[in-house]
Amino acid sequence: MKKIHRMALTAASLFFAITSAHALEGDAKAGEQAAAVCVACHQPDGSGMNVPGGESWPALAGLDADYLYKQLQDMKAGGKRQSPSMMPFASMLNEQQAKDVAVYYSELPAQGGKFDEGATEEELAHGEKLATLGDWDRYIVPCKTCHGPDNLGVGESFPRLAGQHAGYIADQLKAWQSGKRDNDPQHLMLAIAERLNDEDIRAVSQWLARQPAQ
Ligand code: HEC
Ligand code: HEC
């Protein structure tokens, strides 16, 4: 983890992302079977769903396999990533099945995110600024510094945000603020989330969800 700061800032991060693409030992075919219980929420194509007025089920398709596996472990353990919805399903999978479903979802093609059609031009401009330039007066580092150019993700540590559902991105930022999610290495995300206000969260999640997922 020590190297991550430096790596995220250099072009070497792209090389790292490519070479670590299949580090996890999982079988996509077995994963597809184990994922039969997941489709109700994450959908057969892994695109997830924003339930209007309700929970947001993240898109899993095309996310890094090691990242997905780590999240399953964290949600199963329950302490650092608390999700009453996911806990029973994460607990249902044994070690190998968790690897298999992670590889399975990572190989599905990424799809675009769901967002609120009513977001204003001003909101989107503010969201774009936070994601690409940050706000140095408030020590908000641009999302792309860690999540990669175009926020398409970097390796196993920094998930893709572009084309993820706006509702899910906002939920996670609030989960960091409330302590429901506390599984980020070196509190890299907490440091960002705690500096965002509600308008920032809405703006940045609406803008990110509109960006191409590939
Ligand atoms: C009842 C709906 C539901 C079902 C069924 C479900 N999930 Fe989830 N899943 C969620 C929700 C909601 C979240 C967001 C959790 C949170 O942080 O609060 C989530 C999050 C995740 C994440 C984290 C994604 C990320 O980007 O960090 C993974 C991985 C995941 N689910 C995998 C699975 C797998 C594999 C199954 C089946 C074994 C499954 N889920 C079944 C609702 C569901
Ligand atoms: C200093 C590095 C850093 C910066 C800057 C950063 N993030 Fe992150 N972010 C991370 C890390 C690391 C994770 C993965 C945490 C984990 O391992 O569970 C993450 C995860 C996330 C997730 C969870 C995605 C998922 O699939 O569950 C969201 C949402 C997120 N970041 C939003 C943002 C937004 C919005 C910004 C800009 C305002 C931002 N991040 C800036 C490091 C960073």
From TrEMBL:
Which residue positions does the secretion signal occupy?
1-23
Keywords, in A-Z order: Heme, Iron, Metal-binding, Signal
Source organism, top-level taxon: Bacteria
Family matches, as Pfam families:
Cytochrom_C
Asked whether the UniProt record includes Iron among its keywords, one would answer yes
What range(s) does the Cytochrome c domain occupy? 26-109, 122-212
Q: Which InterPro entries match?
A: Cyt_c-like_dom, Cyt_c-like_dom_sf, Cytochrome_c4-like, Cytochrome_c_Oxidase_Subunit
Q: Which PANTHER family match?
A: BLL4483 PROTEIN, CBB3-TYPE CYTOCHROME C OXIDASE SUBUNIT FIXP
Task: Please state what the protein is called.
Answer: C-type cytochrome
Recorded source organism is Denitrificimonas halotolerans
